[in-house]
Amino acid sequence: MEYWFLLASFAFIGAGLKYIDCVYDEEVFDKKVAVVLGLVCGVLMGYLIGSDAKISSIFLAVIVGVAITRKIDTNPFFLGAILAFAVPLFLTKNIMIDWFPTAALVFGGVVDEIGNNRADLGMINSRLLKTFFHYRISMEIVMLLLTAFGLFEPIYFLAFLLFDLSYHSIGGYSNMLKRNRFEFLLVDTPDEIIVTQIEIGNGENHIDEMNGGFLHGEF
């Protein structure tokens, strides 16, 4: 497989998955585009899984990690996951798997997803750990170790870094759009803190309350 195609594919899939995530979690971007991206990313991921055992380990770990933590919770994600398994079975009649790297990457992916959930819920106080799990670095560390011990060539580590970079770039762009779309008004009372979310231009208020605590969000 050409290196440029490998790198471009990982970057595209990372950006596509985050776009879908932002559509349903942040209510940013277009749902119709998200469905198309679910289809395209699933087919592309399936082709890559069927072409290379090491790529198969990486993407199967991503899929299994989010499945275990119940993150495949929208139609585009479900469609993409089904295609990621169906396409290689159609093309090659089997899925190539290196079991040890796959298991190690699944472990890293599950740690990342659980830690990210806990950070989003305000259950982690350490700023360092919040940053660590926000950027889901556990799987990157596992990839680095697998590369250092010669189980993966450096090109696969670079591809995975591009996957993460494009994923977080779309997330950052989504946050910028959301900041421009809404203004936030904080009202502090003795019993509760009320965050009023005002959509600019529409005059629609969306109010979220948490008794005795702060409202957490990625902004």
Name the features.
single chain; 219 residues; mainly alpha; 8 helices; 3 strands; globular; disordered C terminus
What's the topology here?
Elements: H1 3-25, H2 31-51, H3 53-68, H4 75-92, H5 99-120, H6 127-134, H7 138-148, H8 154-181, E1 182-188, E2 192-199, E3 204-211
Antiparallel strand pairs: 1-2, 2-3
Helix pairs in contact: 1-2, 1-8, 2-3, 2-4, 3-5, 5-6, 5-7, 7-8
| Stretches with pLDDT under 50, minimum 5 residues | 185-196, 203-219
Q: What's the shape?
A: globular
Which strand order spans the largest sheet, edge to edge or round the barrel? 1-2-3
Determine the number of helices (DSSP H or I, runs of at least 4 residues).
8
Beta strands, count: 3
Describe the protein in words.
With 219 residues, the chain is mainly α. It has one domain (3-182). 67% of the residues lie in helices and 11% in strands. The chain has a 3-stranded antiparallel beta sheet. A hairpin with a 4-residue loop joins strand 2 and strand 3. The chain is globular and about 50 Å long. The protein starts with a helix and ends in an 8-residue tail after the last strand. The relative contact order is 0.13.
Q: Would you kindly provide a brief summary of this structure?
A:
This protein has 219 residues and is mostly helical.
